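Problem statement: downstream parser choked on a complex file, so we are re-checking the raw output for the S-adenosylmethionine run. The parser issue turned out to be on our end (a line-ending mismatch), but while we're here, posting the original submission so the record is complete.
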Amino acid sequence: MPVNPVETHYSRVDLGETILAALKAAGKDVNHLTPDDLAPVDEFHGGQRPATVRLAELVGFTGTERVLDVGSGLGGPSRYLAWHYGCRVSGVDLTAEFVRVAEMLTELTGLAGKADYRQGSALALPFEDSAFDVVWSQNAAMNIADRDRLYREMRRVLKPGGRLALQEVAAGLGGPPHFPVQWAREPSISFLLSQKETREKLEAAGFRVVVWQDTTEASLQAARARAASAGAPPVLGTHLLLGDDWPAMFRNSARNLEERRTELFNAVLQRV
Ligand SMILES: C[S@@+](CC[C@H](N)C(=O)[O-])C[C@H]1O[C@@H](n2cnc3c(N)ncnc32)[C@H](O)[C@@H]1O
């Protein structure tokens, strides 16, 4: 049983079976799955697969990179990097159930030699210093209060000159978010910083900004489409990962962006 409130928030009973049943109901052959088949359910962040593609293009992967995905969830983004570019990817995530499902889906997509997952904390990454060319993280930091330590850990496991790729939710000027949202049912596990504060913490941790893009406006359309799906969800979707209150989460995500309570950004930084 999870003891950490963040892990409790994300843990679902029988998640693997739920996803397999939905894949079958969606007409997928579960013995011959590709990352594309899984993308509607295993890309657990705003903008889903298209957002992963955009961030990967900002990094400009060549396929030779050794990559760490921090807060890797079900492994959708990391499997995409392994499959599309040929990178060797490791994922670390706090939620044991997500790690189990990530391993199952990686086996089913035939990517077990290219992607591996382990349970662990982003604040004590279970890897040696200078082990990775790229550290990647999408929509995980909003659950992490100690950003100084998070960014120091990310820098520690990067090789000198290595790059950090981030897609994060930031605090906007419109006030605190409406809850529940996908990452928290109430404020006690939500830790948003403004883009400016985030950038200052990253620079203080020893990173140089290479690219910084505010994607709030561009993300609104996808968030509104998701909110509209709350009446009739697709067979396969990230609502399967959330609790019964997922319609409110989808609606609040769009509303928080509209009211500038939240902002989204992509960034690529370099370890100096
Ligand atoms: C919204 S999900 C995003 C998953 C994945 N990055 C994706 O985009 O598909 C946030 C993830 O961050 C993980 N997480 C939150 N706090 C963490 C921490 N301190 N250490 C490791 N993982 C954490 C959660 O368990 C969850 O899987």
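For whoever reads this later: The first strand starts at residue 66 and ends at 70.
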